[in-house]
């Protein structure tokens, strides 16, 4: 992307990772629709989508353009008050990003720092499941004995164990390749790659002045399957775990929900720091120099409920049967089975576009929470608070218990649980910062990419 790319005067810049299919594509479509209906016509949505290769990116932009055309035709038929100059109100940019490659994350961040004046939101959606198949006996038994629970909190997925990323430091000529520690593929794709990305993009996410009434938003995508028992500090990357996906989502919950606590403040401040020299400081980026009037971004946590996407490798027939099972669960009373990716995109799109005073008021009243995409029996979507083991619905002891959609066996929050969760959050933030600094130093010493830290 060129440094001379025109920037909208009143642009709303949103980055969506993993936008080429499933939930990521639905988030983009939902952002377009809701932006057009809720934002002033003078404002432009600049949607920055990331995919792993150019072909996927080009195809994604073409499909988003087609969606935009459909929105225009629908508006014309319905006489909706939407400007017909939609091409001026919605802009697309595509970027190549491989979250399992630290140098790819660094290059992507440098391109954005050189070409983008700010980021209003970064929706961290991309990731991998790491599953290899199903335990069919367990799947059939749990479906027959407890249908809704079985398709909401499955215990029959078979995961790969010990999956690693490709080497971060390639061999070069006759130079002896330095040894590097293992880096878990699921951990890197789901957590660490995004973590690094938002650290490098902190100048753009912080490019909002206090009088604007908004802040940059880092929006993590978690899951209902972020079980407490799957994560251990002793196996931080989940390399020995038989449930590495679930462990990565549990870590996501811990990081996001403890990001504003006093105990994590030193690590979070270092992570979101944007006043240190960057390797792109000599570029034309308007964010090269820190602005003392800007404010730090906020971190939010969402999940899509249960929707039918391609993250689980299944035969087409099994995918249809899985989708039917999800519909049946919803008809039996589950609020988490939105089934479609469009319904799953409800929570992340809402958090990205909601007014700042609305988000602030809700989290001040109910505590820091996990926002989930929920539906009623008919499939009408809404955003619901979701219980997190050890944190409850908002980290408030004695909060109102919400039985609908609650996972069986989760206990009410106690002061002891709350304290342990906060201590775990501090330890996780400390470990993440240490990992970041170690890998940046390692790659810088090997002259891989740029040292953006």
TrEMBL record:
Keyword Lipid biosynthesis set for record: yes
UniProtKB keywords: Lipid biosynthesis, Lipid metabolism, NADP, Oxidoreductase, Steroid biosynthesis
Domain of life: Eukaryota
GO cellular component: endoplasmic reticulum membrane; lipid droplet; mitochondrial outer membrane
One GO-annotated biological process of the protein: ergosterol biosynthetic process
GO molecular function, one term: 3-beta-hydroxysteroid 3-dehydrogenase (NADP+) activity
Family the UniProt entry places it in: Belongs to the short-chain dehydrogenases/reductases (SDR) family. ERG27 subfamily.
PANTHER family according to UniProt: 3-KETO-STEROID REDUCTASE ERG27, DEHYDROGENASE
Protein known as: 3-keto-steroid reductase
């Amino acid at each position: 992307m060129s440094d001379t790319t025109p920037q909208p005067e009143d642009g709303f810049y949103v980055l969506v990772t993993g936008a080429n299919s499933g939930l990521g594509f639905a988030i983009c479509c939902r952002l377009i629709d809701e932006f057009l209906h809720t934002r002033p016509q003078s404002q432009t949505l600049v949607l920055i989508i990331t995919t792993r290769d150019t072909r996927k990116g080009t195809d994604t932009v073409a499909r988003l353009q087609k969606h935009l055309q459909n929105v225009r035709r629908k508006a014309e038929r319905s006489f909706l008050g939407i400007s017909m100059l939609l091409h001026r109100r919605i802009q697309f940019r595509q970027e190549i990003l491989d979250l399992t490659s630290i140098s790819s994350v660094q290059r992507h961040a440098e391109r954005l720092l050189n070409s983008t004046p700010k980021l209003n939101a970064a929706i961290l959606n991309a990731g991998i499941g790491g599953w290899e198949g199903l335990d069919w006996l367990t799947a059939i038994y749990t479906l027959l004995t407890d249908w809704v629970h079985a398709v909401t909190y499955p215990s029959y997925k078979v995961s790969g164990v010990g999956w690693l990323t490709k080497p971060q430091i390639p061999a070069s000529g006759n130079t002896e390749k330095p040894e590097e520690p293992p880096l878990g593929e699921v951990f890197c794709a789901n957590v660490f790659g995004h973590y690094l990305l938002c650290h490098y993009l902190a100048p753009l996410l912080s490019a909002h002045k206090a009088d604007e009434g908004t802040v940059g938003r880092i929006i993590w995508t978690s899951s209902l399957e972020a079980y407490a028992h799957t994560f251990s500090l002793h196996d931080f990357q989940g390399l020995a775990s038989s449930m590495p996906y679930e462990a990565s989502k549990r870590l996501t919950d811990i990081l996001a929900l403890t990001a504003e606590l006093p105990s994590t403040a030193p690590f979070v401040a270092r992570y979101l720091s944007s006043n240190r020299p960057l390797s792109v400081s000599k570029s034309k980026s308007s964010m090269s120099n820190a602005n003392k009037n800007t404010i730090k971004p906020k971190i939010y946590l969402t999940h899509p409920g249960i929707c039918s996407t391609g993250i689980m490798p299944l035969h087409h027939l099994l995918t249809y049967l899985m989708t039917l099972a999800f519909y049946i669960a919803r008809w039996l009373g589950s609020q988490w089975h939105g089934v479609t990716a469009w319904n799953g995109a409800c929570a992340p799109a809402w958090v990205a576009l909601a007014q700042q005073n609305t988000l602030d008021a809700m989290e001040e009243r109910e505590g820091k929470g996990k926002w989930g995409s929920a539906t009623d029996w008919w499939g009408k979507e809404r955003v619901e608070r979701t219980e997190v083991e050890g944190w409850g619905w908002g980290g408030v002891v004695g909060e109102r218990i919400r039985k609908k959609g609650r996972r069986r066996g989760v206990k009410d929050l106690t002061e002891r649980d709350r304290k342990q969760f906060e201590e775990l959050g501090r330890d996780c933030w400390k470990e993440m910062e240490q990992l970041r600094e170690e890998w940046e130093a390692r790659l810088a010493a090997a002259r891989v990419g740029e040292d953006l830290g």
